[in-house]
Amino acid sequence: MASLRLSSLLSGSFSASLFSLGRNSKFGRGISRFNTAASLEVPVTPSVQINHTQLLINGQFVDAASGKTFPTLDPRTGDVIAHVAEGDKEDINRAVAAARKAFDEGPWPKMTAYERSCIIYRFADLLEKHNDEIATLETWDNGKPYEQAAKIEVPMLTRLMRYYAGWADKIHGLTVPADGPYHVQTLHEPIGVAGQIIPWNFPLLMYGWKIGPALACSNTVVMKTAEQTPLSALYVSNLLHEAGLPPGVLNVVSGFGSTAGAALASHMDVDKVAFTGSTATGKVISSLASKSNLKPVTLELGGKSAFIVCEDADIDQAVELAHFALFFNQGQCCCAGSRTFVHERVYDEFVEKAKACAMKRVVGDPFKTGVEQGPQIDSAQFEKILNYIRSGIESGATLETGGERAGTKGFYIQPTVFSNVQDDMKIAKEEIFGPVQSILKFKNLDEVIKRANSSPYGLGAGVFTKNLGIANTLMRALRVGSLWINCFDVFDAAIPFGGYKMSGHGREKGIYGLNNYLQVKAVISPVENAAWL
Ligand code: ADP
Predict the structure, then answer these.
(1) Which of 23, 30, 237, 383 is the most buried if burial means most Cβ atoms within 10 Å?
(2) Does residue 431 carry a pLDDT above 80?
């Protein structure tokens, strides 16, 4: 891909940045504090039909070989939404066999690139047509505000699929000048069967980040969705088949990590595995892949991103951006700005305003207009977050606001802000994955660079300053895969995403995402008459 020019990387920018929606929408600043009780007690009834709860193997919806199912729960109440087929090793074997056949025998990799591209474009059209049903399903299964699902996540998936549909017929190798009487070229070929394991925090975006480049490069796929959020992937995968995807090209197996996920990562007939999730599980997957057939692995793992507010920053903007960087998606983002470093000269003012901002955050039923924060995904995450809050209090951080569950049902947590957080506290070191902001004080640039880089993670960072020299210094010094300067969480189909250090390896999205799904074959042949070289 070296011949691809930078201009192609920068084209097609996507205007619906997450932050701009967060700031400009009527997300109800000023509605009552934590806005709990009434809005949480009577959940809105979602208006969508659940048509697909079986596994998708070889273009058919089928039961698990064992006949087992598992419940998927509504995070607003803990009630069962649906019982979903529980795939395990036997189902992964069936799905991999279907993907293998579809890859080895076609028609998918043997179609023209243009035909493949058209199918992916048709899929994007169907996503657009069914945007609101898909968003409803996503909110129901995940708990994220419907406005965000409908206006950001599903449209971003649609945009991403169009982006990769555009790539499908533009993937090709190079002619290489080599010493000697040889003609040398490279073929950029698909890897084969890709195993993809995704998490629950952005079920649809993670689905798109994975299948987009895999399909554009004409691979076939077995995807294992997260056990907390199986519904939306099944729904949209049905649309992909309606768009003309041949059977066996994309197989979706719902189920658990230690059974279905592990079987996929260690399968001898899977040629590559891509994973997004926790660093602990990433290590397991890496080891399963290397102990089986040494398949290449792409890992997008945890983070503890620094958000650095310099003394020259516009404090009101910095407060709002830092708030967004942490609280967006209930704080369930791997790149959340979960260490808010603030210069000592503006620290007190920042803390006061950050607290006021969190107190105005609207927590409520995610189907209601104006709600900014829904429930956490499940009881395990809910308990884990409350434990981190207790640990913050016990270790001596100052609880400025929040700190408790919101309401009495489901998995809602009050927006929580800690100040006086020290680097050695658990809340400053570990990934909380919830609505808990930790504010730390710094004195100078060298110090904050060292402290920001002291994390074992290196996924993202934010910098807030008007000083170009400082921005440029931090740009070079911070060891992270994404650096947002005076913005945060701006995503785009074309912008690569991935981590340094224990946040993983490989980059998803953009031109870089294609590299994970291509092999390079060097083809060398002699030129008979060197005079014609
Ligand atoms: P979380 O703890 O937030 O659920 P995980 O990293 O454990 O995050 O989960 C992300 C994805 O990884 C899910 O689809 C999950 O089922 C899967 N997973 C969990 N454990 C394993 C495992 N041992 N092998 C393969 N996949 C796994």
Answers:
(1) 237
(2) yes
3-state secondary structure of 313: coil
What's the 286 CA to ligand 1 centre distance in angstroms? Answer: 12
Please check whether residues 257 and 383 belong to one and the same domain: no
Helices (H), 169-217: 203-216
Distance 276 CA to ligand 1 centre (A): 8
Distance 207 CA to ligand 1 centre (A): 15
Q: Whose CA is nearest to atom 27 of ligand 1?
A: 257
Residue 496 located in a structural domain: no
Of all protein residues, the one whose alpha carbon is nearest to atom 15 of ligand 1 is 257
Q: Are 511 and 492 in contact (CB under 8 A)?
A: no
Distance 19 CA to ligand 1 centre (A): 28
- 247 with 317, same domain? no
- Does 451 lie in the same domain as 380? yes
Kindly state whether residue 364 falls inside one of the protein's structural domains.
Answer: yes
Write out the residue range of the structural domain in which residue 10 sits: 1-30
Note the pTM of the prediction, 2 decimals: 0.94
Q: Are residues 131 and 202 in the same domain?
A: yes
Note the pLDDT tens digit of each residue in 137-188: 999 999 999 999 999 999 999 999 999 999 999 999 999 999 999 999 999 9
Give the mean model confidence (pLDDT) for residues 31-58. Answer: 76
Please tell me the distance from the alpha carbon of residue 512 to that of residue 259, in angstroms, as a whole number: 31
Nearest atom within ligand 1 for CA of residue 226? 14
Instruction: Tell which atom from ligand 1 comes closest to the C-alpha of 281.
Output: 6
Report the run of H or E that residue 393 belongs to, with start and end. helix 379-394
* Separation of alpha carbons 155 and 136, rounded Å: 13
Q: Are residues 39 and 25 in the same domain?
A: no
My answer on whether 26 and 72 are in the same domain is no
Which tokens go with 172? Answer: 């090709």
CATH for 407: 3.40.309.10
Query: Looking at the domain assignment, is residue 531 inside a domain?
Result: no
Instruction: Give the position, in ligand 1's atom list, of the atom nearest the Cα of 284.
Output: 23
Nearest to 266 by CA among 294, 299, 289, 296: 289
Residue with tokens 């929606």: 21
Atom of ligand 1 nearest to the CA of 282: 6
Mutate to test the pocket of ligand 1, among 197, 201, 275 (most ligand atoms within 8 A of CB): 197
Task: Report if residue 520 sits inside a domain.
Answer: no
Instruction: List residues with catalytic annotation.
Output: 300, 334
User: What residue owns the CA closest to ligand 1's atom 17?
Assistant: 257
Mutate to test the pocket of ligand 1, among 209, 224, 281 (most ligand atoms within 8 A of CB): 281
Residue type, 2: A
pLDDT digits (tens, 9 = 90+) for 306-319: 999 999 999 999 99
Q: Are residues 21 and 113 in the same domain?
A: no
